[in-house]
Design a protein that fits this description.
single chain, 299 residues, mainly beta, Neuraminidase, 5-stranded antiparallel β-sheet, 4-stranded antiparallel β-sheet, 27 strands, binds magnesium ion
C-alpha cells in the first residue's frame, strides 16, 4: 500500500520508509480536535455527533474522557498545560482546570451568543484565539440547531482582562487556525459553508509586535477538501487536513506531498515522546503515522 505522494525531494526527508499509516481505533461518527497530553501519554479527541471526548492510550486503547462533552470540537493546551476546548452545544470556549472544573473563557460577544466555536490556539503570551463558524448550530447533528446572531468571526481573548475582541471579520466560515513557529504569522482556514464553489483556502496574516494582524491574502487553496484543521512543524511547514489525507505545504505556500488516508481527514496533531507522531482524526477513525519531523505544539 502506498501511504504517500511526493512532489518534491523536501517532502521525502519527512518520510520514514517503513512507517505505516495505522488505524488506531474506529467506529466513531465524526472525530475532530486531537490534542496530545505527553504527561499522561495519551491523546484526547472529540467524537462530535456522539457528544463525547475520547482518550487514546497506546496500552489501554480507547476510553471516555468526558461525556457528555457539550458537543466539543477543537482543543488545544495553554502554556500551563490546561485543556482549552471549543463547545458547540453551549456555544462557548472553556478551560479545564487542573482540578477538573471548567472555566468559561468566552460565550458571547457584544451581548450575543457565539455561534459554535470550532478550533482554538494559544499564543505564547497566553492570549486565546478561536474561530466561530456556524456549523454547530445549523442542525442537531453536531450540537443544537439555533439562530445565528453573530457573523462568523475569529476572536482573541486577552489573557490579562479576559476581554474578547473580534480580530478577523471578513471570513465566510473560519475554521482551523495556527501560528507559525516564531508567531510572526497566523494562518486561518476558510472552509465556507461546505457547498460547491465556497472557499477552501488558508489565508496568511502577519502578526505585529503588539499582536495586531495585517495582510490576509490567500496563502494556499486545498484541493480536494478543506483545511478543517492543521498544525505546523518546526520548519514552518503546514500539515493540513484534506479530503484525501494530510497535505504538506511549505511556508511559501507550495504543496510538496501528501499522506494518504482512506477517510476524509478533519484534523491532526503531533504527539509522542518526541512530537514526531502525527495523530489524524478522519471521519470514523483515528490514525497515526511516525514522521521524520517534529511538531511545534506546546507544551
Ligand atoms: Mg475544524
Amino acid at each position: 500500500m502506498t501511504f504517500f505522494e511526493s512532489y518534491d525531494p523536501a517532502f521525502d526527508r519527512f518520510i520514514l520508509g517503513n512507517a505505516p499509516v495505522k488505524r488506531l481505533a474506529s467506529g466513531f461518527d465524526w472525530v475532530e480536535g486531537p490534542v496530545w497530553f505527553g504527561d499522561a501519554d495519551c491523546l484526547l479527541f472529540s467524537d462530535i455527533p456522539n457528544n463525547r471526548i475520547l482518550r487514546w492510550h497506546a496500552e489501554t486503547g480507547i476510553s471516555t474522557y468526558r461525556s457528555p462533552s457539550n458537543f466539543a470540537n477543537g482543543h488545544t493546551r495553554d502554556r500551563q498545560g490546561r485543556l482549552i476546548s471549543c463547545e458547540h452545544g453551549l456555544r462557548r470556549v472553556t478551560r479545564t482546570e487542573l482540578n477538573g472544573s471548567l472555566t468559561v473563557i468566552a460565550d458571547s460577544y457584544q451581548g450575543k451568543p457565539l455561534n459554535s466555536p470550532n478550533d482554538v490556539v494559544v499564543k505564547s503570551d497566553g492570549s486565546i484565539w478561536f474561530s466561530d463558524p456556524h456549523y454547530g448550530i445549523m442542525s442537531d447533528y453536531e450540537g443544537f440547531r439555533a439562530t445565528q446572531e453573530l457573523p462568523c468571526n475569529v476572536y482573541r481573548v486577552d489573557p490579562a482582562t479576559g476581554q474578547i475582541t473580534a480580530v478577523l471579520t471578513d471570513f465566510n466560515c473560519p475554521n482551523g487556525l495556527a501560528f507559525s513557529p516564531d508567531e510572526t504569522r497566523l494562518y486561518v482556514a476558510d472552509t465556507g459553508r461546505m457547498y460547491q464553489g465556497d472557499p477552501t483556502h488558508i489565508r496568511m496574516f502577519e502578526v505585529g509586535a503588539a499582536g495586531g494582524l495585517s495582510g490576509g491574502a490567500v496563502f494556499h487553496s486545498i484541493n480536494p477538501g478543506v483545511a478543517d484543521g492543521f498544525r505546523l512543524d518546526r520548519q514552518g511547514n503546514i500539515w493540513s487536513s484534506a479530503k484525501d489525507g494530510v497535505h504538506c505545504i511549505t511556508p511559501e505556500g507550495q504543496l510538496i506531498g501528501k499522506i494518504l488516508v482512506p477517510e476524509r481527514v478533519s484534523n491532526l496533531c503531533f504527539g509522542g515522546r518526541a512530537k514526531t507522531v502525527m495523530f489524524i482524526t478522519a471521519t470514523t477513525s483515528l490514525y497515526s503515522i511516525h514522521l521524520n519531523c517534529q511538531g511545534v505544539q506546546t507544551p
